[in-house]
Every structure is written in C-alpha cells, then in structure tokens.
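Hey, quick one: can you model this chain's 3D structure?
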Amino acid sequence: MTETDKDAVDAIIDQWYAVRPELDTAPMAVFGRIYRISKAMGDAMERAYSRYGISRGEFDVVATLRRSGIPYTLSPRQLSATLMLTTGGMTGRLDKLEKAGLLSRSPDPHDRRGLQVTITERGLGVIDEAVTAGLDVQRSALTGLAPEEVELLTELLRKLLAEVP
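Sure thing. Here's the predicted structure for all 165 residues.
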C-alpha cells in the first residue's frame, strides 16, 4: 500500500503504532472503517429521505408498515418491537407521521384498549419513492466494487454480525 492509498483509519493506526507498537490494531482497522462508513451512509440516507419530508427514523416506521404487506397495518407494540424503540419514542414518531398524513391510527377491532397503525395512500407513495432513493444512494456507494466483491463483502459482514455480542 502506498502512502496515497492510506485513509484516516490508517493514520490513526499509524499513530497508535508510534506510541504502542505492541498493540494488535487489526480490530481497529475493521471497526474504524465500519463506523465511518455507517456514519457517512447514515448522513447520506438522511439527506435522501429528507426530500420526502421524513427522517431516517420516520422512514423506518413507514417502511416497516409497507413491508408488513396488505393491509399495511401493525400495532404500535409490533412496530416498537420491530424497530427496538420504547413506546414513548414510537408515540412521537407516530404523532408526526400521522400529522403528515403518512399513516393513520384507529382502534383495534380485536382489542378495545389497542390501536392499529395503517399506512395511508400518501404514505405508500412516499415510502415507495423514498426506498428507491435510498437504494440509489447505497448502490452509488458500491460502484467501486465488482459484483463478486459486493457478494463477498455481504457474506463477510453477515458472518461478522453473527459474532457480535
């Protein structure tokens, strides 16, 4: 690797080597890059979704309803469990999305105390456009990799994710 091929993570590793040469920094080389990629892609996805008037978190709620299939309805509890959100955090998102006309809440016909959350026609249109825009951003980020490299990276990340506590 030439000096011009080095990135910010290499610079950090070089600094650690200068002061602590005995450290095995291989994990830092992997996770430092994963963190930086995640941050950069999260920011890019936020920009892509903002064109549709939603944040990444709001996208997740509407996308979960969309992926659930017809009738695109889940309880707030099901949404919270899927998205690993507290009920308070979910309520705030639902309030905003309902006000924007992307979903509606109605009484659950099977549970007098429960609610159902359903994506609206407007919500269907927004999420279908937003998911396409998000995939375009992600696809663009992968253009420097050959299809086989994308497949290998996918497999390696799946394997790594299975090992993370």
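One thing worth noting: The beta strands are 73-74, 103-108, 111-119.
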